[in-house]
Amino acid sequence: MVNIKDIAKQAGMSPSTVSRVINGKKHVNSVKRKQILKLIEETGYVPNKAARSMVLRRSFTVGIVIPDTFNMFQRQLFSIIERHLDSFGYHTLFFFVTFDDQSEDACLNRLKAEKVDGVIMLHEIKNPAFYDYITAAALPIVTATFRYPGFSAIHVNEEQASKDAVMHLINLGHSRILMISGDGFTFGRQRAEGFFQALTEASISWEENRVVFVPHYTAEFGMYGMRELFLREQRNFTALFAATDELAIGAIRVLNDEGIRVPQDVSVVGFDDIEIAEYMYPRLTTISQPLSDMGEKTALTLHRQITGGKGGGKEQILPYKLIIRESTRALAR
Amino acid sequence: MVNIKDIAKQAGMSPSTVSRVINGKKHVNSVKRKQILKLIEETGYVPNKAARSMVLRRSFTVGIVIPDTFNMFQRQLFSIIERHLDSFGYHTLFFFVTFDDQSEDACLNRLKAEKVDGVIMLHEIKNPAFYDYITAAALPIVTATFRYPGFSAIHVNEEQASKDAVMHLINLGHSRILMISGDGFTFGRQRAEGFFQALTEASISWEENRVVFVPHYTAEFGMYGMRELFLREQRNFTALFAATDELAIGAIRVLNDEGIRVPQDVSVVGFDDIEIAEYMYPRLTTISQPLSDMGEKTALTLHRQITGGKGGGKEQILPYKLIIRESTRALAR
DNA sequence: ATGAAAGCGCTAACAT
DNA sequence: ATGTTAGCGCTTTCAT
Questions:
Q1: What is the pLDDT of residue B310?
Q2: Is the pLDDT of residue B312 over 80?
Q3: Of B60, B21, B86, residue with least CA distance to A113
C-alpha cells in the first residue's frame, strides 16, 4: 500500500510538503503542488485514516447510537442525518444497541476507543455511566427524538402530539378509545400520557386498563397488544391509538382477522408517518414528525458543537403534523 | 484521556506488560495481571483504536457496502450480518452508496483510507476500478444477494425463484400476467428473465410490453409502475408479479384505488418476504430468501477469508421458498 | 517555501 | 517474566 513517504520519494520532496498539499495548506510552490497532486491521482494514494486520526487526536467521525431493532422512522431519520453529516465532512459510525446492559457497556467502550468527534443518540441508554463519560469527556452530543437533561435535544412535543391524535378521534365522536404503547423508551410513556390527557380534557372517563404496554414497537407486538386488549375484555370500543405506525399495522391485522373493519367499525391512528403508512389499506391516519428538518437540525447542531466548541444543552422542539388519511372516520350513530 | 503509559506508570510496570495483559498474552505474572486488570477497570481505560490499528496494520473492522436507499430486506440482512460479524470480533463500517459515480468513488477512497479487514457487498457497484482495487489489494470480500466473477458470493437462484413464483400463478390458472421490475441491479433483470422463462415454458405468449422497469424498488415506484402498465393499455390481466415486496405494495395500492380487488380480481406475488408482508391486507404471497442463513454464511465466509488467508471465489447458492399467503388465488372461471 | 525531527498510542522483536 | 526499543503513517513545530 502506497503511503506518504512513497509519494514524497517519487516526487523527490519531503513528506512534509506532501502533507501540506494533502491538507491544502499554503506555503507550497504551485508547480510542486500540481506535481504531487498528479502523483496522488496516479497512484490512487489515500491517507491512512488511523495515522491521521492518531496525530490529530480526532477521527472526523461521529457515532450514531441507534436501537438494534430500529424502526422505519428511525431508519429514515438516520439516513438523513448521515447525509448531512457527510456534507460537513464527517463519517458515520453506527452503534447498534440492544436493551441489555452488556450491549450498552460495549457501546460505551467502543465510544472511548474510537475517538469519535461527537455523538448523536437516537436511542435512550439506561446506564448513567454512559452520560457521565460523555459529560466528563466534554464530548459534543445531541439527542434526537428524546431529551436528556443537559444535552442538546431535537424532538417534537410527544405528549401534545398524542393528545392531538386522540383529540382528532374524540372530535370524530369517539369516546371508547383504546391504546397500544410500549415501554423501554420515554416516548412510550409520553404518548400514553397524551392519550390520558386528551381523554381527561374531554371529560371522558378511562381506566389504565385501556392501554397495553408491549415490549417492542413492532407490527408483531401490535398484534400481540391488540390480542391482549381483547383478553382484557375490551371489546366495546370504536377507536384505537397506536404509539407507532408499526404497532398500528399489527393491530389492524388482528382487527381484520376478527372481522372488524377499519375504519367502518373502528378508527385507528398511528404515530411517525413511516413510508408505507400511505400505502396501507386503509391509508393510515398518523402523526408526522418533521423527518428532514429533524435530521438536518440534528447534524447541524452537532457540527456547531464540534466546531464552535460550545452551544450545547439547548433544546429544539419541532412542529409535528396530524396527517388525516383513511383509517379514521366519524363515529356512525 | 488515559492511555497505556498512564496505566503502566500507575502500576509501576512497563507498557509492554500492560499490552500483554490487554491482549491476553501468556508470560505475565498472574498477580501483576490482576493488578493491571483492576487498574484498567478503575480508570475505564480502553485502548486507542487508531494506534492499535496502525501498528497491527489492520482495523478489526469490516466494511459493508449497501445502497443508500436500502430496502427492508437489506435492512434485515445487514442487521444479521452485523451481529455475526460482532461475534467474530469485528466492528462494522457502513458505506452507503448511491447510483452516481461520485458516490462510488467516495466509497472506494474510504475503503482505502479505513484499512478495513474485509468487505461485504450488498450493493452492486458499477465502477470496475472498485473491483480492481479489491483484487489488487487482495482484500477479503464476499458479495451477498448477487455475484461478481471471481468473488465469493452468497445468493439464491433469482431466475429460478422468479420462475417458481410465476409458475405458481400459472398453476392457479392465470395466463395474462404482468410484471413490475427495476433496473440498476442485476437481480431486476434476472427476476424478469425468470418471468419470461416461466411463460415460455408454459407456452403462454407474451410481449416485452408486459413488464415495466422502474428506477427504484420502492412502493412509490410500485405505484408508478402499475400506472405505467395501465397507460400501456394493459388492462386485461389477472395476475401481477412484482420484483420486490415494496413494488408489490405500491402496485396493490393503485389496484385498490382503481377498484380492482386483490386477490379476487388480480393475484399478486412479491419477492423478498419483508417483515410487513404478512401484515398487509391481503397478506402477501412472496418468495422468501433465507435471511438468517444468508447473513450467517456471509459473515462466516468473510471471516474465513480473513483468517484463513484464502478460500475466496466460491459461490454459495441458497434455497429460497415460495410463501403462499392471501394475495394469490385460483382464477375464477 | 521546504526539510528534519519529534511524537501521537500502541505492539512486537529483542534483550535480559 | 519483564523492560527497552523501534516503528506503524501521519502532522507539526522548528530550522533553514
A1: 66
A2: no
A3: B60
Cell of A21: 498539499
Nearest to B193 by CA among B208, B173, B205: B208
Regarding whether B168 and B119 lie in a shared domain, the answer is: no
Share of chain A above pLDDT 70, in %: 99
Triad B173, B176, B182: Cα angle to 5°: 120
Q: What is the pTM of this model?
A: 0.93
Q: Is there a single domain that holds both residue B227 and residue B278? A: yes
> Are residue A269 and residue A299 in the same domain, yes or no?
no
Domain carrying residue A257: 158-288
- Nucleotides on chain D within 7 angstroms of protein Cβ: 1-5, 7-13
Residue B215 lies in a domain: yes
Distance from the B68 Cα atom to the nearest Cα atom in chain A, whole angstroms: 8
Q: For A262, name the nearest residue in chain B, comparing CA atoms only.
A: B281
Give CA–CA dist A167/A187, Å, rounded.
18
Same structural domain, A98 and A182: no
CATH (domain of A213): 3.40.50.2300
Place of cell 386488549: A229
Residues of B with a Cβ under 8 Å from any A Cβ are 1, 44, 46-51, 53-54, 59, 68, 72, 75, 79, 82, 91-94, 96, 109-110, 112-115, 133, 137, 218-219, 223, 249-250, 252-253, 256, 275-276, 279-281
Cell of B254: 393503485
Q: B162 and B282: one domain? A: yes
Residue type (1 letter), B62: V
With respect to residue B3, please indicate whether it lies within any of the assigned structural domains. Answer: no
Which residues of A touch chain B, with CB atoms under 8 Å apart? 1, 44, 46-51, 53-54, 59, 68, 72, 75, 79, 82, 91-94, 96, 109-110, 112-115, 133, 137, 218-219, 223, 249-250, 252-253, 256, 275-276, 279-281
Q: Is residue A4 a part of any domain in this protein?
A: no
pLDDT tens column, B6-21: 999 999 999 999 999 9
Percent of chain B, pLDDT > 90? 88
Evaluate whether residue A44 is within a structural domain: no
The total number of structural domains in chain A stands at 2
